[in-house]
Amino acid sequence: MPTAPPYNGLGGKWRGDNKSVNWTQPYKLLTSSPAKAAAVRRCTRCVLPETFPDIQFDSEGVCQYCRALPSLQERQKQKAHLRTRLETLADLIRPDPGYHCLVAWGGGRDSTYTLWLLKHYYKLRVLSFTFDNSFISDTALKNIRLIAERLDLDHITLKPRFEMVKQLFTAAIETPMYSLPMLKQSSSLCLARMALTQGMALQLAVELHIPLLVYGWLPGQYPLDLSFHATDSKTLQVSIEEIANPLRKVVGSAIDPYFPKPHELEKARKYPYIAAPLLFMDHDEKSRLHSVQALGWESPTGKNSDSPNCLLDSFAIQQHLQQMGYHPHVAVLAAMVREGYLSREVALAQMEAPVASEVIRAVKAKLGFPPSYLPAMLQCHSFT
Fold first, then answer.
1. Percent of the chain residues topping a pLDDT of 90
2. In the prediction, which pLDDT does 146 show?
3. Most Cβ neighbours (<10 Å): which of 43, 51, 199, 366?
4. Pairing state of beta strands 101-104 and 212-214?
5. Residue with the larger pLDDT of the pair 43 and 29
6. Residue 150: CB partners within 8 Å, gap ≥ 6?
7. CB-hemisphere CA count at 13 Å for 150?
8. What phi, psi does 60 have (nearest 5°)?
9. For 291, how many CA atoms within 13 A lie in the half-sphere containing its CB?
10. CA-CA distance, 147 to 298, in Å (whole number)?
């Protein structure tokens, strides 16, 4: 791999091609061919494009995912049942000593809103956890510090060795780490990042005997029927192997300290329920934004947009568009449109939002890529 230009850390500057980028300052934005994006055919109900794998449109231009959507009444009934289950568990564990739940928190709007729900709506004793992947924005870190204090939280930040993280992220960009079904839901960079987050979160929950593990996932990121479920030693071991194996193929046993061991699971006193409340709670863009802004949360760009709290996101979008031909957030945005959490117009605007060209260059530099690097096409359609 080419040698990276000099780089003095996330809080400093990237230097190369006689240019300098300061991570802490507002950055210029780059759009990716609006004319080409406008010409792509999309589902007339959601926002899935014709480039999405296996997409099929009927005579009215509606995709098969919209056609297969259960009725509103069925979905409301299922969500009400999930809310009842979570409320029942919260009532059961609320009198217990120790932490009631662990929340994976990246400092973004949705995980911050989830944290607020658990603390104020469910009245639980929350431990928040952040995976510092070396690419969290300065604003997200500021949000974490400020809101942890305002919500009076205990908070843990875990930062794995950068060389291992760099090796994983580089492999996610250059090799087919993940199958096509998984790449429908997210970019390979974000999948690798989330795998490490899940491993460390499970490790903490098991070690500290925390009965509930919560993520700020949105519709499209996780199945509704799994958005609140119990676990046990066997199911956790199977899940951990599925999550860890792609990482282990890249870095070998170096990944093992970040996941619970089988013998630790077998001896665990409690196995956490896993919940993603934003899949079944009543909320919308405005309510989530209003709630977190009341806590002092700020967008990484200073705008009321769905801005990334992780600086990898712009590069992940560029990589996924280049390699797969569709936006990595499109499945999530389409699901949110179908479920009524987001308007189709807002979803389209989010996908057409410019990406930060200077941030992309800085991320490339830190990962060891030259500024001109573009990810090569991967033969993702051939594996399952």
1. 76
2. 97
3. 43
4. parallel
5. 43
6. 295, 296
7. 16
8. -95, 5
9. 21
10. 10
Residue burial 107-116, b: 16+ Cβ < 10 Å; e: rest? bbbbbbbbbb
DSSP string over 15-61? EETTEEEETTS----B---HHHHHHS-B-SSS--BTTSTT--B-TTS
Which sign does the torsion angle of CA 257, 133, 306, 352 carry?
A: negative
Taking the alpha carbons of 207, 90, 77, 290 in that order, is the dihedral positive or negative?
negative
What is the tens place of the pLDDT at every residue in 73-104?
A: 999 999 999 999 999 999 999 999 999 999 99
* Segment 241-246 mean pLDDT: 96
For the chain, give the mean pLDDT. 86
The pair phi, psi for residue 325, each rounded to 5°, is 85, 10
Provide the 8-state DSSP code for 136: B
Candidate from 3-12, 87-96, 245-254 with smallest mean pLDDT: 3-12
**Position 299 confidence tier, pLDDT thresholds 50, 70, 90:** confident
SS3 of the chain: helix, strand, coil, percent, to 5: 50, 10, 40
Tell me the C-alpha distance between 204 and 112, whole Å.
19
Instruction: Give the pair of three-digit tokens for residue 149.
Output: 């204090």
Do 218 and 336 touch, CB atoms closer than 8 A?
yes
Query: Distance (Å, rounded) from C-alpha 26 to C-alpha 83?
Result: 40
Measured distance CA(184)–CA(330) in Å, rounded: 8
- Cα–Cα distances in angstroms (integers) from residue 236 to residues 70, 243, 316, in the given order: 29, 10, 28
Q: Give the bridge partners for 144, in sequence order.
A: none
* Terminal CA-CA length for the chain: 28
Nearest to 128 by CA among 153, 152, 150, 111: 153
The answer to whether 328 and 312 have CB atoms below 8 angstroms apart is no
- The number of C-alpha atoms within 13 Å of 110 and in the hemisphere containing its C-beta is 23
Contacts of 273 (CB under 8 A, 6+ apart): 89, 211, 212, 213, 228, 229, 230, 231
Of the candidates 345, 310, 340, 341, the residue with the CA atom closest to the CA atom of residue 328? 310
Model pTM? Answer: 0.86
